[in-house]
Every structure is written in C-alpha cells, then in structure tokens.
Specification:
Blueprint: H1 12-20, H2 22-34, H3 48-56, H4 63-68, H5 77-100, H6 119-138
Length: 139
C-alpha cells in the first residue's frame, strides 16, 4: 500500500489506473511540481519506477494524500502532539487554579453523615408532607 492508500502492486498498469482519474492526476501533478518535476517528464527523465516511489512516500500533507483522505493531515504525528499538548495544558490550568486559589474560596466537600436512609420510607414521608401542604393550602 502507498502512503496515500493506492495499491501499486500492478506496476505501470496501477499507475495508469490512478492517472485515469483527473483529480488524482491533478493532485499527483501538483506534488511533482513541488519537487520540480512534471507528469510531462514521465518516460523521459522521470521513470515509472520513480513515479511509483514518489507516490508511495508522499507525506500526509501532499495533494494526493489529501485527495485520498482529506482528514489525514490531522493525524500527522506533529498535529497529534500539538493536540495532546493543548489538552494537557487545559487540564493543567484547571488544576493549577484549584491548587493556587484561596482555601476559603474552594468548595466544601460533601459531608458524610454515616446514616443509611431507607429510600422507600423517605419517599413515603415526603409524599405525605406534600399532600399535607396541598391540603393546608387548599383550606
């Protein structure tokens, strides 16, 4: 498989099939122009083998790679490191603010009473209180 995802096991035939697609041809032409070459050089000063090697080793930022997978540029190691650094900085800033802030302004942790509440009994008690409040308000 190629850096761009093309299968070049068929040699020249595979390259020709890739070049039949006008958009793929334009993307490869743009990548060759970046290197000072052109598809016009193919067969003269640029061999089919050279073209295959260029396509196989294109970076994710190349036009042909972007043509095959527009989101590939976001999965480069450089961008992944930048994303992880930004996420880490965001988390570190929140932790720093919590640690540096005035202890009086920090939220109090919930206090544990140690008492186990029977949920059904509590619901029944609150329903009775609600009915009593409604009855008192109706009078």
């Amino acid at each position: 498989m190629v850096g761009g995802g093309a299968d070049l096991r068929g040699g020249i035939g595979s390259l020709l099939r890739i070049l039949e697609d006008r958009k793929a041809e334009g993307a490869i032409q743009a990548d060759l122009l970046d290197r000072g070459r052109s598809l016009e050089d193919l067969g003269d000063t640029l061999s089919w083998w050279d073209l295959a090697c260029i396509i196989e080793n294109l970076p994710a930022s190349s036009a042909y790679s972007r043509y095959l997978d527009p989101d590939a540029i976001y999965r480069t190691p450089e961008n992944m490191i930048a994303i992880l650094a930004a996420d880490g900085a965001r988390g570190t800033n929140a932790l720093f603010k919590l640690l540096v802030s005035d202890p009086a302004s920090r939220p109090e942790p919930p206090k544990k009473s140690g008492v186990v509440i029977d949920a059904r009994a509590e619901i029944t008690k609150r329903q009775a209180q609600f009915v009593a409040q409604k009855a008192a308000a109706a009078v």
